[in-house]
Amino acid sequence: MIDLLFWPLLATLLFAPPWLLWKHTERLGWLSRYVLALLPVGVTWLGWQWGIWAFEHFDCQGNTKGLHDCLSNGEDMTAWVGRALFLSVPMMFIGLPLSGWFLIDTLMRHLGHLSNRE
What we know:
The chain is mainly α.
């Protein structure tokens, strides 16, 4: 069941913030806009950090025969650790430019708003 939720959750966390920034910009405060702009790269970075932590914590290193435990409460965590470590690299090529673009856009709008207010 959790495996079925992985892809929709990842897509939502990567593409919902830009959609909110694009459609509902006027209704959001500046702090919310900056947080939403940084969310795609933040989620990618947290997934990468979780993968590194889980790889060591669940003892996924293996041994001389190539066997490893990688278990949490009897559940095999290999797929989750693999996704976190593998998908963090290609998601950086999506999340980093997306966050960079929206962060620059939000900063320019914020500076424009401040200059128009004076």
